[in-house]
Amino acid sequence: MKNSPYVTFSNDELVKSEILRRNLNISEVDFISIQKWFDLLLLKHEKATSDRDTQLVAEKELETKFNELISSEIETKSYRYILPRLLTYNNIFHDSYLRSLYIARLGALLCDNLIPKLVNDKLILYTPEDFMHVTLYLKDHYFVSPNSNLLEDTLKIESVRSILKQASVEIKFETLKNILHMIYQKTFHHDIICFKKILKLVSQKDVGLIDYLKKYQVENGQGCYKIIHEILNLDFSKEVWDDFEIKLELINFLDLGRGTNPSSSWTKKFQELAVTIDTKMFLEISRAILKNENCKTYELSYGAVWGDDVAKRFLKSAEWIKKLI
């Protein structure tokens, strides 16, 4: 069918993947071989039924052909091109865009087998420029699935290889903006783990990135990111880096607000922060957070209401701070 989701995705992906191929300097010969495997993957997904045995046969065939592809049909340097494409397909397979039926075995082939194998393979090398192009390719999706580990795997590609330690300020900025855009698109934010990982990647030289983070907000306007926006725009120090370091510590601290009463780790961290942050500033922090009291839940577009656990933790920490000072 001309207008089927599979055709739409395939056509869109072909355009994006060709740009990535050129940016990573992958040969056309390898591109064609790789594309044949992804075409087969998509076909198997489209034709799959809920029958587990049939899915297992398809999974085995795809795995065998993939191993043949990477062992003898393409250059080793082309692996760095395959990996982001696997992430894209894994993400779309975890969405209902293509079909509502989750094809468990093909999902497992990607997220439990092929992707971790390549993500953790340190012989697959990316220059900072390569990785920037990878994140540009991964930047936009119909839907960022919370179950696909798209963000987690993208950040793990970097952490396994420490790619951004070698990057210029400009390349690093563009790369992290691309990943932040992936977070921006999520329809619901179950946690801020990946966002906090990005904050940890910021260095003293990243003045432009720090300024960008102060303006950053997510598409769905969820409470946890509203509160983060408030925190990042408080003034702790005239020195940009000192100011940012305090905010990073504060966000990590506020996210510890679990349980009925403050834990020992929460109390210890509060005491440590009290060396840097005075009572007046703590009151300002508490007020800035508590004005978002109505952000404990979030209503999705189809009417379901989900609890914003991160916002709840921030609000709980703010209440405890208010009582302690």
3D structure, described in words:
It is a single chain. The chain has 325 residues and is an all-alpha fold. It has a domain at 221-325. The chain is 66% helix and 2% strand. The chain contains 15 helices and two strands. It has helices at 5-23, 28-47, 52-73, 79-93, 104-119, 128-138, 150-161, 169-185, 193-201, 207-215, 223-232, 240-254, 264-273, 279-290, 309-324, and strands at residues 297-299, 305-307. The protein has a two-stranded antiparallel ribbon with strand order 1-2. A hairpin with a 5-residue loop joins strand 1 (297-299) and strand 2. It is globular. The protein starts with a helix and ends with a helix. The model has no long low-confidence stretch (mean pLDDT 95).
Shape annotation: globular
User: Share of helix among residues?
Assistant: 55-70%
In total, the number of strands is 2
Beta-strand percentage?
A: under 5%
Give the overall pLDDT as a whole number. 95
Major β-sheet annotation: 2 strands, antiparallel
DSSP helical segment count: 15
Write the H/E string, N to C: HHHHHHHHHHHHHHEEH
